[in-house]
Amino acid sequence: MTFEAHEDRELAGELATAAGQLLLEVRSGSGLEGKELGDAGDRRSDDFLLARLAADRPDDLVLSEESADDKRRLIAPRVWIVDPLDGTREYRTPGHADWAVHVALWSSGKLIAGAVALPALGITYVDDTAPIAPVAGLLPDPADDRPRVVVSGSRPPAFSDEVAEAVGGVVTPLGSAGAKAMAVVRGEAAAYVHAGGQYEWDSAAPVAVAQAQGLWCGRIDGSPLVYNNDNTYLPDLIICRPELTDPIVGVTSRYL
Ligand SMILES: Nc1ncnc2c1ncn2[C@@H]1O[C@H](COP(=O)(O)O)[C@@H](OP(=O)(O)O)[C@H]1O
Ligand SMILES: [Mg+2]
């Protein structure tokens, strides 16, 4: 079976949105909280995504944060890379909108489709080139007009302050790799920088969406992000407005 690019993009968007709806239902209707809520959400979303991908794309392989790694993916022509719930910590915390569902498709060395759902905001972004108007909602209104550099709230990189200084910006914590990447896509932030640990599913779909929007995406040494590796550890990442690439990489490349 072969599929057009728009069919894969539509499926990625549909699945991310529907998994996000399930996560909202688990969050509001299960009566669970804390770790149990996170685990139930992970399980429910992962089961759904795997079942739909098996039904709709039976020839493709899947790499999911929540499922055993099927190494046949290393010789497969098409691999879906999914994070059923990114920002588990925030999902478990009432009032947070910074959690996401990631669905990406890798083929022949590239990300060829991707979708990031922000279920609490009722929005799903796909790897579309249509411009996205600046929109607030993930972050509180800024105190001033300095560009925001979003970083992990729990594990900010050591270079956060130096990167912010290099772009005349302000360090801003936010949960979830997908939510941070979409803050840049939405124009709420100018850059997302990370180091110290992450996996392919944390960044694949966010990067597919951000690249389609003309944002620069790469490693902290300026090299490209490579997906569907044997070892799925992909510990660092930059997603930024293209004009900020040089000043940011100038700082981060000294932290390898
Ligand atoms: N040092 C680290 N090691 C491993 N994973 C990390 C990490 N820092 C962040 N991550 C992962 O990246 C995602 C975003 O994290 P953060 O909100 O801190 O920016 C989370 O994914 P999950 O929620 O899917 O586990 C988190 O687990
Ligand atoms: Mg994740």
Automatic annotation (TrEMBL):
Keywords: Magnesium, Metal-binding. GO terms for biological process: 3'-phosphoadenosine 5'-phosphosulfate metabolic process; sulfate assimilation. PROSITE patterns: IMP_1 (PS00629). It catalyses: adenosine 3',5'-bisphosphate + H2O = AMP + phosphate. Transmembrane segments: none annotated. InterPro entries: CysQ/Inositol_MonoPase, Inositol_monoP_metal-BS, Inositol_monophosphatase-like. Its cofactor is Mg(2+). It holds the Pfam family Inositol_P. SUPFAM superfamilies: Carbohydrate phosphatase. This is 3'(2'),5-bisphosphonucleoside 3'(2')-phosphohydrolase. Mg(2+) binds at E65, D83, L85, D86, D202.
